[in-house]
Amino acid sequence: MNIAEWLHGLGLERYAQAFHDAEVTPEVLPELTEDDLRELGLPLGPRKTVLKAIHALALSSGPTPVEVRASAGQPKFPLPSEADRRQLTVMFVDLVGSTALSSGRDPEELRDLIQAYHNTVASEITRFEGHVAKFLGDGVLAYFGWPRAHEDEAERAVRAGLRISKAVAALTEPTGAALAARVGIATGLVVVGELIGEGEARERSVIGETPNLAARLQGLAEPGGVVIADSTRRLIGDAFIYHDLGTVPLKGFPGPVQAWLVMGEGAAESRFDAQHGMSTTALVGRDQELALLLDRWEQANGREGQIVLLGGEPGIGKSHLVRALRDRLAGVPHTRLSHFCSPFHTNSALYPIVGLLERAARIRREDPSKEQLDNLEAMLTLATDDVRASAPVLADLLAIPTGERYSPLELSPHQKKERTFQALLEQIKGLAAKQPVLAIYEDVHWADPTTLELIDRAVDEVQRHSILMIVTFRPEFVPRWTAHGHVAALFLSRLGRRQGTAVVDRITGGKLLPQEVLDQILAKTDGVPLFVEELTKTVLESGLLRDRGSRYELIGPLPPLAIPTTLQDSLMARLDRLAPVKEVAQIAACIGREFGHNLLKAITPLGEDALQLAINELLDAELIFRRGVPPDIGYSFKHALVQDIAHESLLKSKRQQIHTRIAAALKEHYPARAEMEPETIALHLAEAGLAANAVGYWLQAGRNAAGRSANLEAITHLSRGLEALKACPEGPERDRHELALQTAIGGPLIAIHGYTAPQLGTAFSRAHALCYELDDTNALFATLSGKYIFHFVRGDYGAMQSLAAEARLAAERTKDMALELGAHRLAALTAMHAGDFLTARAEFETILSRYDPDAHRPAPVHYVHDPKASALPYMAIVLWILGYPDQALRTSRAAFEYAAELNQTNLTAHVAVYGGAGPAELMGDVAAARAHADAIVDLADQHSLNYWRLSGLILRGWAMAQEGDAEGGLALMRRGLNDRGGLGASWYQVRYLCMLASTCLQLGDGEKGLTALAEAKDLAACHDEHIWEAEIACIGGELRRIRGAPADEVEAYLQTALDVARRQSARSFELRAAMSLARLWRDEGRLVEARALLASTYGWFTEGFETSDLLAAKTLTAELAKL
């Protein structure tokens, strides 16, 4: 009996080292008491488990020869009481030519032959801790990954398959002919462990295509062959040598299936090399750790031998760090000795040293023993002149016959071990005398006891030699060498967000992922580099993304990311090690990554004492962490992916039952939480298959999120509500829910995707139609406004007029004041778009005079439709255009005050762009415009408001150019204009193009200015927009003037600007056109006309004399008066 294996079977392998250090043997085991176990460091739960198992041992007896075959098929670990979902590697073995074997043969003789075959196959399967599921005559079905998973099930299955092939070939018929087997292996998701059948036929089933695939692949193999599925091949990397069989048609499968023939073990030195090859992603976030290793290397070079104990959880990057050190030393003279411990050889004495010697001496077992011995001696000469002293003992270690070259070793086992240790240590010291040695011992948590004893000796020996030893291990291993002064312990921590993002960038080749995808990757992987790499690769292969050159974009809504197949066995192994309390972990996983003790207690069938014992065992295993203090104790899973695997391993039916209980418990015991976090209730109801019941909770969750400007979350909640509606029966109730959801999603869609997003138009169009179907005038106010704004920003003047007229008629019909104010708003915006500024002002003034915040302020989710919030910013622009700068500034301040009162992010951005930066730019206040632009960009970055961010960047670029950074400012403006145009936005795009053209005018670049202006003119004409008509003509005249166009051509443009401005009562534009004409006439000597034009235009103004245009007009008037 092996103590370490016995503890492993109990899920307590983490205590194996303590048993070994205390020299607990199988003979001593039955004598252990609870006090003994407490002294060994076992907590209460594991102590009880060990004592029960010892008692069971005392009651059992060893198998008789008759029982051997039967016991070969028995599971090493207890079978779970319930079925679960998991990734499983399935093996199917078939005896070749069994029909011919049975022909004419005595039944007893055939029975003995089949029994020998079954025992041989079962023995190799259990060697690698697989589970013999069923003997099918001459076939054997086996599972790797159930009832207990290991992190490397696919590799275990393939290794077992190769050994089965070899072992069966060693069996012979009575005639002397050798037997042969075919092996097929496949990996995939299954439901396993459900009891089916009755009586003698009762058995555990496995459901899924994986068993069928393994059986079909077996049929492809030649006698002695092992054929595996592509799903298995992807998990084992280069651990083996393969022959590509291509895609082959298989009965029962819809299309050809990729298959691989396994030829033998691969040449990769380590598990890390087998999975990653020689090319790995660059090391991220380990600069300090690598620097420590390099520092210790320098010390070792000075004959001050060093040891670094490198610890960390699986996937944290231990092997990657060692590889990075190897790469840094690639050009430095040294000898590298790499030792690799194996989970398959934890009881094979000196296994990692044997592997190193065989690789270094190029020993191949198929070579003659003389050649093997020659190679060993040649290797030994590299370190010593006295080969004969060490060759015999190391040849014995490697099982190489020495023949007559050396006398037989006549040593006791203890003497042989001492001589072996001496030879191995002299070898490494001899190598170090010639050049520094880097000795690496990887994964010593799997080391056999003799190897650990050799490391004990080496730790003492290396101190006086040029040797750097690096020992890597996982947390369950407790190194016993930390007290030495030349030993440094280094435990790798998880990566931070920035470092995790860098790992993602390496995998994507620098292409940006959508923010929500990146966020989910980083949240689920908890800073474990392997998890980050594998989940990123899974996302890239998932079909969720579209490659856009420098970035990826989502094709549709982002679902929860799937657990990578490469990690499923490892994660499941962590759960299976805690089999007695696994169900508690699964129930907790249904609650979420974080869960409270009281809620868990409310939904588990366990009593308080039993539940606490289970939780303690989960805590001891570090599967979960405790947080908080009584009475509010809670817990969280150490890894999000462990929570995922615990949740997904439940059968859907069982999972739905648990989620139903959770939703009920939350509503009954935690009503305040249910009100604050309705999305939690909705999620559990949806997971329970009660989607229709979740609709109202998704709606409230979306409204809550929108109310606090969490727009991405709002869109997610409301979209899930719309999806859940599909489970509701058709009728008015369903339509009312849909109307509420479609209306509520509008604001968040605007905030994230802008006013021109196609999904926004779809949402408001559907809501608009539902309003009439349900005769809902209250919702009509919001939906008409939303639908109008969609067309307004896109510049669809016809739709704007139609919707404004519809709003007016609806208001008259219903006598609803809120709808009436909404109608005035649409009329004002339509008039503004048409350049009818007097009408626009009148409509805005009507809104502001009649608006009652108590009666007309919409719910927070509808703030985007607030009549006053919309009127004030645009009123500021209209007042400036009409020639009232001071009133415009007062209105601007009022807009900001009202926005602060509402405190809604999208509205704040709206006011900052149109009520702040807009008037500031028109009045030439560069400093104010820059301050507003920076605030807009900061707000947009904080809340993912891409539409507003682009406006902020354009305004920032304009201010930068005015401040002297012409190149940077113009580049920023052009980039913002291009991206904003790409969204389909027309509203205010003409103004931004005019700003670009006027900036080019200031810089004297007439050609680029005219190009921008031509785009502005075309866009305005396309959408029948007349707001900036006078400005376009005025800037066009000035640009032509600096390019040397004839005076009459320039004058025609400026006169058009003047005429348009006067027709529109646009006094500020009129002043600009008058100043441009006055300068032109001045230069032509037409001073009387110039003075008269400017005097009449400037003389009209009664305010705003400190603004840039009026100051310029005053200066020009004085200048003309002197001429």
TrEMBL record:
<dbReference type="InterPro" id="IPR027417">
    <property type="entry name" value="P-loop_NTPase"/>
</dbReference>
<protein>
    <submittedName>
        <fullName>Predicted ATPase</fullName>
    </submittedName>
</protein>
<dbReference type="GO" id="GO:0009190">
    <property type="term" value="P:cyclic nucleotide biosynthetic process"/>
</dbReference>
<dbReference type="InterPro" id="IPR001054">
    <property type="entry name" value="A/G_cyclase"/>
</dbReference>
<dbReference type="InterPro" id="IPR001660">
    <property type="entry name" value="SAM"/>
</dbReference>
<dbReference type="InterPro" id="IPR013761">
    <property type="entry name" value="SAM/pointed_sf"/>
</dbReference>
<dbReference type="Pfam" id="PF13191">
    <property type="entry name" value="AAA_16"/>
</dbReference>
<dbReference type="Pfam" id="PF00211">
    <property type="entry name" value="Guanylate_cyc"/>
</dbReference>
<dbReference type="InterPro" id="IPR011990">
    <property type="entry name" value="TPR-like_helical_dom_sf"/>
</dbReference>
<dbReference type="GO" id="GO:0004016">
    <property type="term" value="F:adenylate cyclase activity"/>
</dbReference>
<dbReference type="GO" id="GO:0005737">
    <property type="term" value="C:cytoplasm"/>
</dbReference>
<dbReference type="InterPro" id="IPR029787">
    <property type="entry name" value="Nucleotide_cyclase"/>
</dbReference>
<keyword id="KW-0067">ATP-binding</keyword>
<dbReference type="InterPro" id="IPR041664">
    <property type="entry name" value="AAA_16"/>
</dbReference>
<dbReference type="GO" id="GO:0005524">
    <property type="term" value="F:ATP binding"/>
</dbReference>
<feature type="domain" description="Guanylate cyclase">
    <location>
        <begin position="89"/>
        <end position="218"/>
    </location>
</feature>
<dbReference type="Pfam" id="PF00536">
    <property type="entry name" value="SAM_1"/>
</dbReference>
<feature type="domain" description="SAM">
    <location>
        <begin position="1"/>
        <end position="42"/>
    </location>
</feature>
<dbReference type="GO" id="GO:0035556">
    <property type="term" value="P:intracellular signal transduction"/>
</dbReference>
<keyword id="KW-0547">Nucleotide-binding</keyword>
